[in-house]
Amino acid sequence: MTDVRSRLEPTTVPAEPRGAVVVLHGGGSRTGGVPVSPTQLSVLRMVPVAGRLATTGRRRLAVWRLLNSTRGWSGHPNPVDDARWALDRVTEQVGDVPVALVGHSLGGRAALLAAGDERVRAVVGLATWLAHGDPVGPLSGRDVLLVHGDADRVARPDLARDVARRLGPGTRGGIVTVPGGSHSMLRHLGTFDGLAARWVAASLLGDEPGPTLAPLLAGREREVSA
Fold this sequence. Notes:
Elements: E1 7-12, E2 19-24, H1 41-44, H2 46-57, E3 61-67, H3 79-94, E4 99-104, H4 106-114, E5 120-126, E6 143-149, H5 157-165, E7 172-178, H6 189-205, H7 214-217, E8 223-225
Parallel strand pairs: 2-3, 2-4, 4-5, 5-6, 6-7, 7-8
Antiparallel strand pairs: 1-3
Helix pairs in contact: 2-6, 3-4
């Protein structure tokens, strides 16, 4: 068994949630398996994202932020192991409810690669960092959203767009392009976290997704602009 030293930080945990969300941070690798700090920027970046999910969920969603075992992707366990560990902890705490994974950068990559777990109903990748050949999918029965700025100079939009195009007929979703959006999401954070929250609420709770996301959920489009 992989030795996981992850931590789950609760944002809101209602008594009887209808769904659960695990928010996954990004962050570059460090040599020697450097542990994740709760004050590093990649972790703090996800605090408002988790807060928006909790507000939109209106006490119907349990929301946690995951702090990975080590920084980046080079450590052991890697962020996919951490995400799977988190899914087990969520099940222990709130039972058998549908789960959404929402990740930024490498956290988006981890969300996509962990989404084969049967408990995962929805996935959101924000400015997702992907590598050629990442074994994403098939993700039949999941609702998968990628949100990517066209000014991202760290994570390649074309790789995210390719994943969106390869979503099978049993998968609802696609990619939203944010004009002027960068990898940090700072200038358009309200757009990024708003789309994530509406996607999760629509998928797990049946809320209206809004005009930007409706064509993706309905299967009419695979790519739209915010």
